[in-house]
């Protein structure tokens, strides 16, 4: 049998192109040649988290792969059918576990998976695991996905050492479309403030600062608070705070990270102000969740439509990538970096 033709994908814009391309390559059993991997980034090529994800998805699909090494700028990837594969992953750095999982989530629609990942749970330029649990997974559940993540230990830059257990069951395909316009009937704020290798008061000070700012804006709102601290754990030192606005039909979230020399109060203030920006347009999907939903919208049966707080470059790039794989066309009303409506007629993938 002749080799299938490789779909050519330019991944200059970043890791999102790589993640979406490999996931869709596996689901469609379509070989792909990904080149210029992260060429526009300060340190181009595959980083540890990307390499771990490439190797994991290759194992799940018994793929033939070339170029799977650190700093590689191109990958040839030829998948076979998805198989049940037991594996655990150690990224080896504080590489984002959430981005590792993001690549596997579409594949998890068709597979029983359960594994542990060691890496970064709360790191810069990536959603936190808490965000996946509270904001993303519930939306995907309404579409038919069955996903679960549990945090056993948090991991911060530069060592990581966070540990997350992930589990999935095959979804009932095709997925249902998702339609979320305006955020309706505000219920409460929920805060998750954490620290590792630091005094216990770091978590409480972050939360107190965020609460003050948000409840000044939303008077007499209910506030649910979860504080976590591992002061004796010196292997990975850091702090984070996730704040969520819970509505009847959706959850919007924002995050901030501590760093050396940054007061805990400033970390909480940053998270609260980030969330207020997400809430200002009144839309049901925050800017971080939007680009993570796009692949699933395109795979669903029927028309999905979401109102997002901001149409980001990540969204734009992901749409362009998805449209190269699937016979679908997204419509975006509004300009880049503005509140927008994103819609697509899904392909009813089974």
CATH-derived architecture of the largest domain: 2-Layer Sandwich
Percent of residues in helices: 25-40%
Number of helices: 8
Whole-number tally of structural domains: 3
Indicate the structural class.
alpha/beta
The overall strand count is 16
Sheet having the most strands:
4 strands, mixed
Q: Radius of gyration from the CA trace?
A: 20 Å
The stretches of 5 or more residues where confidence is low (pLDDT under 50) are none
SSE run = EHEHEEEHEHEEEEHEEEHHEHEE
> What shape does the CA trace take?
globular
How far apart the termini lie comes to: 25 Å
Q: Overall pLDDT, averaged?
A: 94
- Strand fraction equals 25-35%
Please name the fourth-level CATH homologous superfamily of the largest domain. Answer: RNA 3'-terminal phosphate cyclase, insert domain
| Name of the CATH class of the largest domain | Alpha Beta
CATH fold-type name of the largest domain: Dihydrodipicolinate Reductase, domain 2
